[in-house]
Design a protein that fits this description.
This protein is mostly beta strands and about 190 residues long. It contains two helices and eleven strands, in the order αβββββαββββββ. It comes from Sphingobium chungbukense.
């Protein structure tokens, strides 16, 4: 009969000390978006609240999508119009790097809402569609990842994680139990 060598399982100290990066205990709510598909988005113009371009996916009106300009950080947007492969997206948070004519807009009456000025661009971006949003609680964080309390996550799942005070990040579930999951972020947290 097999008898395990107990010395192989001996630990020289607490598990935390053997990890590559220290963990910080947190209790923070998070929105989790399991990724369904990724495709290229050729952005042709932007405004402080919108993105227009050609999508390699067929999108529906009011569909929630995520756009990344660096494959690490993503912004959430809603499909406002489509015309074949051309799409118009309204972003959830203003694109601060796009400047408009704010002084003119401040002088206009509340009843007059002109179209925002657009900047013509030629930028490649990543467009991500996701399953319905899930709610979770971040329990700890390290330089490369986090442990999230949430049901239904499976090992290997690509997902976007959004929490207050942090950008929406793309990660992969490294391990999962019934109610916990470890998420790894390639570019770090």
């Amino acid at each position: 009969m097999f008898s395990p060598n107990k010395s192989e399982f001996r630990s020289d100290g607490p598990i935390e000390e053997q990890r590559r990066h220290p963990r910080k205990a947190v209790f923070k709510s998070a929105l989790i978006y399991p990724v369904l598909s990724r495709a290229c988005l050729s952005v042709t113009n932007v405004s402080p609240h919108g993105i227009s371009g050609r999508a390699a996916l067929t999108l529906g009106l009011r569909e929630q999508v995520h756009v990344g300009f660096d494959d690490t950080n993503f912004i959430t947007a809603e499909v406002r119009w489509t015309n074949g492969q051309q799409v118009g997206l309204m972003v959830e948070d203003p694109l601060l790097w796009v400047t408009g004519n704010d002084s003119l807009l401040e002088r206009l009456s509340d009843s007059h809402h002109p179209r925002e000025s657009r900047v013509v661009v030629n930028i490649s971006a990543t467009l991500v569609t996701s399953a319905p949003v899930m709610v979770g609680t971040i329990r700890n964080m390290s330089e490369e990842g986090m442990m999230i309390e949430s049901s239904g996550l499976r090992e290997g799942t690509r997902l976007l994680v959004k929490s207050r005070g942090r950008s929406t990040r793309m990660g992969r579930v490294q391990w999962a139990t019934d109610h916990m999951a470890g998420v790894f972020f390639e570019g770090g947290v």
